[in-house]
Design brief:
The structure is a single chain. The protein has 529 residues and is mostly beta strands. The protein has 5 domains: 70 residues, no CATH class; 181 residues; 87 residues, Sandwich (Immunoglobulin-like), CATH 2.60.40; 78 residues; 63 residues, no CATH class. Helix content is 13%, strand content 38%. It is built from 8 helices and 36 strands. The strands form 8 sheets. A 7-stranded mixed beta barrel has the order 6-7-16-17-15-12-13. Strands 28, 29, 30, 31, 32, 33 and 34 form a 7-stranded mixed sheet that branches. The protein has a 6-stranded mixed sheet with strand order 20-21-27-26-23-24, with no helix packed on it. α5 runs parallel beside α7 and α5 runs antiparallel to α8. The longest helix has 13 residues. The chain is globular and about 80 Å long.
Length: 529
């Protein structure tokens, strides 16, 4: 094969071309498709290339094992190699295991029923353990079949082979290794991570394992649960989180058939206003949209791929963290921004709707109460015994409680969280709508109330020119432009100069702190713009 991933540096994955490697470089490489180790061979008779290492049964199913090309896309090939995924669902204090089946359209499902298709599930000993009832499957939705007996793998047996549904689902599931299978935590169902898929630091995962898992210097076991299983084997679910990347932690992850990489930065939309649904940005009009990367690292760079609606790469570019502002031309066809080639869970989608459809770029309205009294975003509070915090919103938000700078508790797609019973000093509450941070609350030893940056009405009907000139005159320390300015700017039709000033600040990501203070001081909830 012509290219592979260079994994020589722990936590970093870089795609390299064999032709670009000089000399007899002894790096650590893996296949871009199946993730299994490959070796570099310097060209003498043949051109320089990578080759799968012998002895891997998994690699022999990879279409790059003996060739460099395929008629299928990389996403389709990964499905063929890894097989159907598994899912976990929490039931009281235990978990149930499911096999997940890819969505099929209504025409395919109807035809399979008409011809009398029968599908059975067999274990690795070829014993039938389950049968699929096509009547229970809904078109265009993932079907999840509960499993009561856990085996290393399962195979699908079709009464009529070669039909569309057999092509979509294939003949096997993913493998469940005795030392562990990782799951990405979801709100209801948690999906298994593909063979040699990606996990990152400071993110919690479920690990299904027969072996006992205990704390190590590079990861923490947060909780453990039992698996509802009729077999003799004792399987457990461990909720774990890697805290740092070292050679030891990278090897531990590889032994569990995943890759431990640095966590990608957050994408913050700057301009124009957009609405977010899950990890999708929806803009009102086509054109240039500006974003910013937010990372805990101040230096370095990220290679980003832009994919078309078919998930095929259109182009790549680099973003340096010293200057993390970038722009993308957004049109009516959906585009995907991807940090990792091998894992679409880290993709962000961008699309513009028809101009005739009105998009309400409205900021959610929050009601925050501490000890039954209203507080404002940015408040600094002191946690005391029997005092409580409640959060309400008119739009669904993600609410995260951070402890020691690590996510401690996450509420996804909630309209309210009415109780945080065990708050302690040092906790931070972050409220997000989509990927926007709407509000942050701090629990510290001192209590300090900051400006309400969510007000968007101006006091005393200030003239646009006067306000604009006053903002220009402000000097001093620069700070990050509050992302909420995009909601405010979207409604400043009667303040064109001030609006352009805020838009420029959002595009550059910098604004004078004095200008922010002056603008917020002249903002009043009671007066309309």
């Amino acid at each position: 094969m012509d290219c592979a991933y260079n994994n020589s540096k722990p936590g970093v994955q870089i795609k390299v071309q064999a032709s670009d490697i000089s000399g007899y470089h002894m790096g650590q490489y893996s296949c871009i498709l199946c993730g299994e180790p490959v070796k570099f061979y310097r060209g003498e008779i043949q051109k320089s290339h990578f080759r799968h290492e012998r002895g891997s049964i998994i690699a022999q199913t990879c279409e790059f094992y003996t060739t460099n090309m395929s008629e299928f896309s990389e996403e389709e090939l990964r499905k063929k190699i890894t097989g159907l995924p598994f899912y976990l669902k929490q039931i009281d204090t235990s978990f149930k295991l499911y096999i997940g089946f890819w969505p099929v359209d209504d025409l395919t499902l109807t035809e399979e029923k008409r011809i009398g298709q029968k599908i059975t599930i067999k274990n690795d000993r070829k014993l039938q353990i389950e049968a699929i009832d096509l009547e229970k499957i809904h078109a265009n939705k993932t079907y999840r079949l509960p499993i009561s007996l856990v085996y290393n793998s399962y195979k699908l047996k079709y009464k009529i082979s070669g039909t569309p549904i057999s092509e979509i689902w294939g003949e096997k599931t993913s493998r469940i290794f005795s030392n562990g299978l990782f799951f990405r935590i979801g709100s209801i169902y948690s999906r298994s991570i593909n063979l040699n898929g990606i996990i990152t630091t400071d993110t919690s995962y479920y690990l299904l394992s027969q072996s006992s898992v205990t704390n190590k210097s590079y990861f923490k076991v947060e909780e453990s649960y039992s698996l509802l299983n009729k077999g003799k084997e004792k399987w457990k679910i461990y909720k774990i989180r890697f805290t740092k990347i070292t050679r030891e932690s990278s090897k531990y992850a590889r032994d569990l058939h995943v890759q431990l990489l640095e966590k990608p930065p957050e994408i913050i939309p700057l301009w124009p206003p957009s609405i977010q649904k899950d990890r999708k940005y929806i803009h009102q009009e086509t054109g240039i949209s500006t974003y910013c990367l937010s990372s805990s690292n101040k230096y370095g760079k990220w290679e980003v791929a832009i994919l078309n609606k078919h998930k095929k790469q259109s182009y790549r570019f680099e973003i340096f963290l010293q200057d993390p502002i970038f722009s993308i031309d957004v049109d009516n066809h959906i585009k995907y921004l991807s940090f990792f080639d091998t894992d679409n869970d880290f993709e962000v989608a961008m699309v513009a709707r028809d101009k005739k459809k009105n998009i309400q770029c409205r900021q959610p309205s929050l009601e925050l109460k501490w000890m039954k009294k209203e507080i404002i975003p940015g408040s600094e509070l002191k946690a005391i015994k029997n005092a409580d915090l409640s959060i309400k919103s008119d739009m669904k938000c993600d609410i995260t409680r951070m402890r020691n700078h690590i996510p401690y508790e996450i509420f996804r797609n909630e309209l309210s969280v009415l109780s945080f019973p065990d708050l302690s000093n040092g906790d931070t509450i972050i409220i997000r709508h989509g990927l926007d941070i709407l509000a942050t609350l701090y629990f510290r030893r001192t209590k300090k109330i900051t400006h309400d940056i969510y007000s968007n009405n101006l006091k005393d009907n200030l003239k646009d020119e006067a306000l604009y000139q006053k903002l220009l005159q402000q000097r001093g320390t620069f700070t990050a432009a509050p992302i909420q300015f995009k909601y405010i700017a979207a409604r400043l039709e009667n303040y064109p100069k001030t609006r352009e000033y805020l838009k420029k600040a959002l595009k550059t990501g910098r604004i004078s702190k004095q200008a922010v203070d002056h603008f917020l001081k002249n903002t009043d909830k009671e007066n309309s713009i």
